[in-house]
Design a protein that fits this description.
The protein has 7 helices and 8 strands; from the N terminus they run βαβαββββαβαβααα. It is an alpha/beta fold. It folds into 2 domains: 135 residues, Rossmann fold, CATH 3.40.50; 99 residues. An 8-stranded mixed β-sheet has the order 1-8-7-6-2-3-5-4, with helices on both faces. β7, α4 and β8 form a beta-alpha-beta unit. The longest helix is centred in the C-terminal third of the chain and has 67 residues. About 2% of the residues have low confidence.
C-alpha cells in the first residue's frame, strides 16, 4: 500500500473506515487530540481512545484504554498524537493488534517509521490533520450535535415557554404577573445567557488553540528547512574546499 498523498486516496480511506483508535488522547478540550477527536466522532466513526494515564476513565463519552491491544474491536485507522521519538513503540503495538491505516498527525512524523510501515504494506497518512481532511473531503456536517449547542437551543425554547407562561399569568390574573413566573423566567434567562457565553467562549478557545498549533507546526517546518539548508551549506562548503585543494 502507498503513502497516501492524494485527496482521492484519503477520501477512499475515510469512507471505507469505521473504527478509529486515537493514541495520546487528552481530556483537555484545548489539546489537538481532544478537539480533533470530537470532530472525527461527529462524523459517525467509532472512537477508541488510548492513553495509559487515563485508562478506565471516559473522554468524549468513550472509555479510555491503556493500550491498543485492549481494544475489543478491529481497528481501521490508528490516529497518533505522540512525539516522533515515541511513534516507533506505537507502531509496534499497532502491528500486534492489527490495523489498516496509520495516520501521522502534524508534528508526529517519524520518517523511519513511515518508511518501515510503507515497506510492510500498510496505508500511511503523513502530516495531515484528520479533522481538516474530513471537513474538506467528506463535505458534510457532523452527525453528533454538540451538547452545549443542544443545551443552548433547549434553553431558548424554555425561554419562549416561560414568556408564554407570563402572558398566561397576565390573562388569568387580570394583568397581574405571578411572582413564580417572573422568577422562573429570570432563572431561565440567566441560564441561557450563561450557556451562550460558555459556548462562544469555548469555541473561541478552541480556535485560538488551533491557530497556536498551526503556528507551532509552521515554525517547526521552518526550523526543519533551516536545518536542511545548513546541512546543504556544509556539504557545499565541503565540496568547495575539495575543489580548491585540488
Amino acid at each position: 500500500m502507498p503513502i497516501l498523498q492524494t485527496d482521492e486516496g484519503l477520501e477512499k480511506i475515510l469512507k471505507e473506515s469505521k473504527n478509529v483508535a486515537v493514541v495520546g488522547i487528552s481530556p483537555n478540550p484545548l489539546k489537538p487530540s481532544y478537539f480533533v477527536s470530537e470532530v472525527v466522532k461527529s462524523y459517525g466513526f467509532n472512537m477508541f481512545f488510548v492513553n495509559p494515564k487515563y485508562a478506565g476513565e471516559e473522554i468524549l463519552g468513550e472509555k479510555v484504554y491503556a493500550s491498543l491491544e485492549e481494544i475489543p474491536e478491529e481497528i481501521d485507522i490508528v490516529n497518533v498524537f505522540r512525539r516522533p521519538a515515541d511513534i516507533k513503540y506505537t507502531a509496534e503495538e499497532a502491528k500486534k493488534k492489527g490495523f489498516k491505516t496509520f495516520w501521522f498527525q502534524p508534528g508526529t512524523v517519524n520518517d523511519k517509521v513511515v518508511k518501515q510501515l510503507d515497506k510492510e504494506g500498510y496505508n500511511v497518512v503523513v502530516d495531515r490533520c484528520m479533522k481538516v481532511e474530513l471537513k474538506k473531503l467528506l463535505k458534510m456536517e457532523g452527525k453528533m450535535i454538540n451538547f452545549t449547542k443542544f443545551f443552548a437551543i433547549t434553553m431558548f425554547f424554555l425561554i419562549l415557554l416561560s414568556v408564554g407562561s407570563m402572558y398566561m399569568s397576565i390573562l388569568n390574573n387580570e394583568g397581574v404577573i405571578r411572582p413564580q413566573a417572573v422568577i422562573f423566567y429570570t432563572i431561565i434567562l440567566f441560564g441561557y445567557s450563561f450557556t451562550l457565553f460558555y459556548v462562544w467562549n469555548r469555541e473561541k478557545q478552541v480556535e485560538i488553540s488551533q491557530l497556536e498549533l498551526e503556528k507551532k507546526l509552521v515554525l517547526e517546518e521552518l526550523e526543519n528547512y533551516k536545518s536542511k539548508l545548513e546541512e546543504i551549506k556544509k556539504e557545499f562548503d565541503k565540496y568547495k574546499k575539495k575543489i580548491e585543494e585540488s
